[in-house]
Amino acid sequence: MTAPAVLLRGGRLVDPTQKLDQIGDLLISDGRIEAFGRVGEVRRDGDALDTVDCTGRIVSPGFVDVHCHLREPGREEVETIATGARAAAAGGFTAVCAMPNTDPVTDNQAAVGFIIRQANRAGAARVFPIGAISIGQQGKTLAEFGEMVGAGAVAVSDDGKPVVSAQLMRTALEYARTFGIPVADHCEEPTLAANGAMNEGIVSARLGLKGIPSEAEEIMAIRDILLARRTGGHIHLCHMSTRGSVELIRWGKERGINVTAEACPHHLSLTEEAVEGYDTNAKMNPPLRTADDVVALQEAVRDGTIDVIATDHAPHHYDEKEREFADAPNGIVGLETALAVNLTWLVHGGVMDVTTLIDRMACTPARLFKLPGGTLRRGSVADVTVFDPDAEWTVDPARFVSKGRNSPYAGRALRGVVELTLVDGRVIHRRREASTQGTRPPR
Amino acid sequence: MSAAGALGKDLLGLEDLSGDQIRLILDTAEPFKEISERAIKKVPTLRGSTIVNLFFEASTRTRVSFEFAEKRLSADTVNVASSGSSVSKGETLVDTARNLEAMRIDMVVIRHGASGAARFLAERIESNVINAGDGTHEHPTQGLLDMLTLRDNFGRLDGIKVCICGDVLHSRVARSNIWGLRKMGAEVAVCGPRSLLPNAIGEFGVTVFEHIEDAIQWADALNILRLQLERMHAGYIPSLREYNRVFGVSRERLERAPKDLLILHPGPMNRGVEIDSDVADGPHSVILDQVTNGVAVRMAVLYLLAGGRPELAEAAKGGGR
Amino acid sequence: MLEISVSADHIPAMPTRQTTVLDARAMDRALRRMADEIVEHNDGTDDLIIVGIQRRGVQLAARLVSHIKDRESVDVPSGALDITLYRDDLQTVGPRPVVGPTDLPWAIDGKHVVIVDDVLYTGRTVRAALDELADFGRPRRIGLAVLIDRGGRELPIQPDVVGKTMEIGGGERIDVMVEELDGKDAVVVAATGDA
Fold this sequence. Notes:
The complex is a heterotrimer. By secondary structure, chain A is an alpha/beta fold. In chain A, 28% of the residues lie in helices and 23% in strands. Chain A has 2 domains: 5-59 and 380-430, Urease, subunit C, domain 1 (Roll); 62-368, TIM Barrel, CATH 3.20.20. Chain A has 12 helices and 18 strands. In chain A, strand 8 (126-131), helix 3 (145-151) and strand 9 (155-157) form a beta-alpha-beta unit. In chain A, helix 1 (81-90) packs across helix 2 (109-122), helix 2 runs parallel beside helix 3 and helix 7 packs parallel to helix 8 (243-254). Chain B is an alpha/beta fold. Chain B folds into 2 domains: 19-138 and 293-316, Aspartate/ornithine carbamoyltransferase (Rossmann fold), CATH 3.40.50; 141-291, Aspartate/ornithine carbamoyltransferase (Rossmann fold, 3-Layer(aba) Sandwich), CATH 3.40.50.1370. Chain B has helices spanning 19-35, 61-72, 89-102, 117-122, 140-154, 172-183, 212-218, 229-233, 240-247, 251-255, 277-280, 287-305, 310-316; strands at residues 50-55, 76-81, 107-112, 128-134, 161-165, 187-191, 207-209, 221-224, 262-264. In chain B, the strands form 2 sheets. Chain B has a 5-stranded parallel sheet with strand order 7-6-5-8-9. In chain B, helix 2 packs across helix 12 and helix 5 packs across helix 6. In chain C, helix 2 links the parallel strand 2 and strand 3. Chain C contains 4 helices and 8 strands; from the N terminus they run E-H-E-H-E-E-H-E-E-E-H-E. In chain C, helix 1 packs across helix 2 (56-72). Chain C is of the alpha/beta class. Chain C has a domain at 25-86 and 102-170: 3-Layer(aba) Sandwich (Rossmann fold). The chains are: A alpha/beta, B alpha/beta, C alpha/beta. Chains in contact: A-B, B-C.
């Protein structure tokens, strides 16, 4: 059953892939972008047309999150593929890539196929599985990249854990070349980072918590960049968090090495000071760093040294987080706050314009991981997000679509609300009526 | 003392030979093929010569092939199988060399697990030394018999396109083939996962195909290397099953080729891993011809290396009919 | 293409003096007579196999077979033998001689094999040919036909059919040339300048 045609009228159409930024109408039919143009110019005769008034909103390609944890199979009480895909939709994401540190680990074609089936059943955001680099993510034996890609995997990663063996990373980069997929690494030198709970610095010293020095990330980052140079493979560095890492990535790119990188909204907005009071909702890996690191990361996202913004959405159960700081698990949710955090700190904060933000959240992620969408070109799939860049709201995790509530932004006032999310031209999220979100009347 | 013939004292690898020398060996191998078709498969050419087959690595097919070559030339052969411990490998080889020297052996055929072992031996003894495979360095007689088989089928080597498929990184057969074929003007490519190709493969003068389908579209012949279980255990590839799915030469894949591809394999084959049975036993497989040619090539090499003594040649000048 | 050809044949060196002892016509007459003699010794063509020794013996054998065909209207089977691998001087001759093709697809047991060569000198080539034939089977009889017998035997070997007998001195050589390889038919004697 095909969705009815949709006309998004009067919004600000922003698509960096076409250098498009104009007020206009966008017509979607048969799941594809059919046409766009100036207000009133786009017509469609014939059958029913769903018209949405987008005045004052931005109409952009749907966001693509290349790094999130959906916890299924294994931890369905904390999140399922269905709840995660719907949370993504609520955050304006039309596609997410699910990391394989599930239980059991997604290291074979049957597991990859399972995730895809569950996502299709959910019918919300697209879910693209990332396969494990090693069997069980044990860091010893290569997983069958070919089989996993054949079943639908778009990349490989042992995220959750670093790839400790340089030889394994080298082989993974070489072997992945046959299938044209990136190898994504969680950069953490295990002996330096062992037992660390937050960034090593003045705050950890005061709070008496063991710190994780920035070198733990940078040592692995440069190792991976050098191996990418040797092998000609594509290394994608996950959740970069330090100025030093940014400089190493810049070094690599200057030399034409195929290295790409992501940064998370929390590393672009919060510092280690958020841990004050031992708030476990500010505990994640890599940890929040210093203000100087935040500035370096923001600048890197702006100039493209960091290619994409990804959420590293990592739900945990309330009980797990409700523990002594050192014992609490790492990770925060992020799908439903990503847009607002990025708009508030980066766009309204004057670091970059919204066009650049849309590129880092939608266009480049889709391009790097060879996914559909990420553009409003005529004929491409109608994965579209409509959002209000200015509407203010207060974050209340109790109202999240995700099962996870572990967010450091609880109670904060942010700007930016997702109004409508479409996948294949089908509405998968519509902003709720009469909510505390947004000061404008809902559509 | 053996004189240096057209090939020198030893055959250590194809990288050191010129195109003319390779051509000489292939041309010389032709008449030797006929001897293996006779009822009495023997000529008296190396009568009285003593040849030692010194095999530090277990090998049935290569050793037996050399043995037939030696016996069909009427030489006296002795097989020595030895497993030097990895710690004392070098020492054992030196002692062995001295012992052979003391016994006045004419020729030594050596297979050893260390690259360079054949040269090591050749530099220390007067006897002719033939490399039957040293580590991952070279296996020259295999390269030669592969080229002879290709030449038999195509009538030439110049300009034909040969793709070597599989674990090139660890393969002495691949290296000998690459050096030999390029010297004879053939176009050479390799195909396999990057984790099984030398990082510097770009400097070998070969084309690299990431996908077997592309190699099949390009090549006139495929030389399919054996994939060893140890590679999986050492982590270069995830599993033999995936290797077969992604890189295996199957009938379905060959059917999409624009022409009939000649299929070679140095053996022994892992049926269902790098090569499917219906390809190995199919109409374009010349794998058994390779075995036949192997004996002829080895006879030719033994014949050419066992050169005469120049001082007696001077004295004998004018002798003849 | 550079050919390394150190062969068992006499390589006609550039002679200082060269005398033609048989021209093409004389050679042809001799070969016809030899063909007749071979058939006569065999009382016909039954069980006859003519085997030429590489290289020029092969061409001469072909001529003989052709002459026998003219006379007797019979195709006598023929073959070629390369005796390089059976030489008794392989260890001393220096760089390895090129091995030519041997083609003897006939069963020779119980047959009358006639070996054909261009020049008979020391007899060592024929001895090698006899050894090689022994590896192929056991003929009833082996005969020897040569175009030129130049004397100088080192082994007790004699020909059954001869084209021409000549005494050649130590400082001279005699070469048979055939059209197929040398562009003309002739037998020439030249001084080689070797002492």
